[in-house]
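Minutes, project huddle
Topic: does the predicted pose make sense with pyridoxal-5'-phosphate bound?
PN asked that the exact inputs be recorded in the minutes so nobody has to dig through chat later. Recorded below.
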Amino acid sequence: MTKPAAAPHVYLDHNATSPLRPEAAAAMAEAGSVGANSSSIHGPGRAANQIMTRAREALAKLIGAAPDQVVFMSGGTEANNLALRGLGNIDCLMISAIEHPSIWQTAPQTGLPVIKLPVDSDGVIKLDVLAAELEKASLAGKRALVSVMLANNETGVLQPVAQVVELAKKYDAYVHTDAVQSLGKIPVGFETLGVDLMSLSAHKIGGPQGVGALIVASGIALQTQITGGGQELGRRGGTENLPGIAGFGAAARVVLADHGFSEAGKVAALRENMETRLTDQIPELVILSQNVPRLPNTSALALPGRQAETLVIQCDLEGLAISAGAACSSGKVSRSHVVEAMGVGNDIANATVRVSLGWNSNQNDIDRFVETYTHIASRTDRRVSVA
Ligand code: PLP
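Predicted holo structure (tokens), as shared on screen:
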């Protein structure tokens, strides 16, 4: 006798990966069937090139950049690597304490001095510290690259990147922003922000995994990290991932067509409903950074005194896919550097889980999550054994 199929998980982990949109899947299949190299000059090659051009134009339009400023690559991680490693004429890096590991683990490898920019208890970068560091560097005749993300992946907290740019320009510093989590959730304007470099990733907007882009302001010369056939105007060698780029472009077109950000509005209403009900039902619940501007889809929820990893496993057993704020590697649990940087106590830092909604989230998902999480929060048996 076959076992009845388990109910599908309620997927509330869009900040890890947002499931592939059908439009992206269709575009990928179409691009995959072309079977030619976009650099080839024959007809099929030109057809491949046309698909890539369309994707480049859609992404550029979505973020208010020019198509030739878009450098396609393998994802947000590679974009962050090129941003930090590719500028030749800088003397130091200034990086917010809450950046993604692809920034934090790359920065020391550049060989440049790295200055850590602290955040306040809500997880917002301290602009006065940045101003002082920029002034100090400038007086010492040093030029900085400042890297501050547009929104944090764990808490959703928006960072004052426009003000960062304003300060940086006073001291002739460069600015990079990791906009991987912001794209599709809030309006993202490359020219409007005035940054020099911006990282993006397809799989956070319902495009495929393994494709992303670095947006490079005109006049910025980047030393490519991958030498090869001169693709992407010499900024990233290697035959482009045509199906991936086509999927990225299709996902960008879906977001672009939603002028009023109605999808994000729907997601924001669902999150509001979730947070209100959870707060009513779980008095001890702490919602991090609830009173500062956040992405509309992200909630960092802490049950003081509990273990985030255990909560994630308990949720998984109940059919809910969420994440721990903390990272787990080699069987060891390490606390989230983001929550730690906010200076909250251990009881909260160890107990924070991330719930992130997205394009296919609905009221049923929220009802199931609220009901199950409330039940888990009320359990006195707080342990779970994992084989
Ligand atoms: N930057 C941020 C803020 C992210 O959240 C992520 C992925 O989680 C990345 C960069 C890396 O992107 P990718 O998975 O495309 O390498």
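Observations noted during the meeting:
- The pocket of pyridoxal-5'-phosphate is lined by residues 75-77, 80, 100, 102, 149, 153, 178, 180-181, 201, 212 (CB under 6 Å).
- Confidence is low (pLDDT under 50) at residues 326-331, 382-387.
No decisions taken; revisit at the next huddle.
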